[in-house]
Specification:
heterodimer; A: 353 residues; 5 helices; flat; B: mainly alpha; 65% helix; globular
């Protein structure tokens, strides 16, 4: 050991034991429970999205201007080459480890702004905003950070143009890109002390601190241990035609004819949930196991008929309920899944650590 | 030994060492505790796989380093990493070289700081450090060289023999 090592060893304090493993395990399990409940509560969001989308004339293959539907990461399975002026993102991307690869999909139109979901290096994903005048903003994040909980996007408007774009990360941090016409730098400034929140505070250099609403922006939930979704298609790519976008994806079907997949993908399936919904539960030894719950077994309250129902549902506590967890065949029971029916606000009380 | 007991033993046995590394990565005790807990919480759902594979240390360290860099990037805290360390006049007369060195290391850019922490505090080889950082061994070497060069320029450390070791 050389002198540097010796001095560092002397300089870094020798700490006391500070973690109780049992407490850590309780928190780990509580965290998972909260995330699962968040996933189920997303049913309400999906229903709201579906009901709002139904109001607008649109084809399954087209994102209508102003449509509320948002893409999921799986849309990147169908990524194509972005226009040259978008391939590297719009505005400063900075030294983030995730840089746009030039492939992506048109996600949605918001006013005069177009939002693209783009593949990024380092197993990342980017959101690219472009205004009608060519200005815009880009914000990127690791896909792995997005797999366990919905992503939220904040657009704050001034004179009909977005000024801020914030991506609320699952660990509670907010990646904020100050973009559009007003700034030329990206800052990451806000901290949300909860996994989910209805509001975030944005502040930073040249930005007056303010509280903003966080709109839902669902991405597929992934099961623990699953691999990152493929971001780069293997097939040929072509230019993005104007107005084209997220494909109408189909759920895979098991040997018994049951569809299966992530509930959060429902927004790309016309709001329809699969027969078998991906979930993580506990096996008979108490260990976590990935499997599926049957859509038919889910509490009826989890499927609101309209936005008002959804709002009421999310505000109401539902008694916890244990559901059987199946293998992908839909018949082999491999564990149980506890539906934690706490109201939406309760999911925001979990610490992010 | 089942996964729960294995995890329990690991947390009990390794948390102090992990906290020291985290402390050097983050610069303060509170953030270091957060970092260790975050890494362990992330590790637990995959514990069976981690234990059977490269071992928990490598995984937990990798999460800690990535999260430390991530936090530093995301949090706007006015902390500005620099290649030119400021003159710590109040520390120069202090005979406590370890404290001066630690302060200097904490002023390094995040990746250089991580390399120093893993190489010289955790005593990892260059290959192990590269695995923890998810980068090439050559990158570890270059980051180490840059870090040592910066530290050598520190007025309070000029008399030290800060030599990179191979590994």
């Amino acid at each position: 050991m050389n002198e540097l090592a010796v001095l560092l060893d002397q300089g870094v304090p020798e700490p006391q034991v500070f973690l109780d493993p049992a407490d850590l395990l309780r928190r780990a399990r509580r965290r998972r429970t909260l995330r699962r409940s968040g996933g189920l509560i997303a049913v309400a969001s999906v229903a709201v999205v579906a009901s709002v989308a139904a109001l607008a004339p649109s084809s399954p293959h087209t994102v209508a201007p102003g449509a509320a539907a948002s893409p999921t990461l799986s849309a990147l399975d169908h990524a194509v080459a972005l226009p040259p002026d978008l391939s590297g993102g719009v505005g400063p991307v900075g030294s983030e480890p995730h840089q746009p690869t030039g492939l992506g999909v048109l996600a949605k139109h918001v006013g005069q702004t177009t939002v693209y979901l783009a593949a990024a290096t380092g197993d990342g994903v980017c959101l690219i905003l472009r205004n009608s005048n060519g200005s815009g903003a880009t914000s990127c994040a690791a896909v792995a950070d997005l797999l366990t909980t919905p992503l939220s996007v904040v657009l704050d408007w001034a004179d009909g143009r977005p000024v801020y774009m914030a991506i609320v990360m699952p660990d509670g941090y907010t990646t904020l890109t100050i973009g559009s016409d007003t700034a030329a730098a990206a800052f990451n400034v806000a901290y949300l002390p909860a996994i989910r929140s209805t509001h975030g505070v944005i502040s930073g250099p040249r930005v007056e601190s303010r509280k903003v609403d966080l709109g839902p922006y669902p991405l597929p939930s992934a099961r623990a241990g699953s691999s990152p979704l493929p971001l780069i298609p293997t097939g040929p790519v072509s230019a993005v035609p104007s107005g084209s976008a997220v494909a109408d994806l189909r759920y895979p079907v098991n040997a018994y004819g049951m569809t299966y997949g992530s509930l959060a993908d429902a927004s790309t399936h016309g709001g329809k949930a699969p027969d078998l919904i991906a979930a993580s539960g506990l096996d008979n030894t108490g260990a976590y196991v990935d499997g599926y719950i049957k859509h038919a077994d889910m509490p009826a309250e989890a499927e609101p008929k309209n936005p008002a129902d959804a709002a009421a549902l999310m505000a109401r506590a539902i008694p916890p309920k244990s559901l059987l967890l199946y293998a992908v065949d839909g018949t082999t029971v491999i564990g149980t899944f506890t539906f934690d029916g706490r109201p939406a606000a309760a999911t925001g009380t979990a610490t992010a650590h | 030994m089942d996964a729960t007991e294995d995890f329990r033993q690991y947390v009990l046995g390794r948390q102090r060492a992990l906290l020291r590394t985290a402390w050097l990565l983050t610069g303060d005790r509170g953030s270091a505790e957060d970092l260790v807990q975050t890494a362990l919480l992330r590790a637990w759902p995959h514990w069976s796989r981690i234990s059977a594979g490269e071992g928990p240390d490598a995984y937990v360290r990798r999460v800690m380093v990535n999260k430390a860099i991530d936090w530093r990037r995301r949090r706007w805290n006015g902390e500005v990493p620099t290649e030119q360390l400021p003159e710590l006049q109040h520390l120069v007369p202090d005979p406590d070289l370890p404290q001066i060195l630690v302060a200097a290391v904490r002023s390094l850019p995040a990746r250089q700081r991580a390399v120093v922490a893993l190489r010289y505090l955790d005593d990892l080889s260059e290959i192990e450090t590269a695995a923890a950082l998810g980068c090439a061994v050559g990158t570890v070497k270059s980051q180490t060289a840059k870090a040592l060069a910066t530290l050598r320029r520190h007025p309070g450390l000029t008399n030290l023999e800060l030599q990179g070791s191979t590994g």
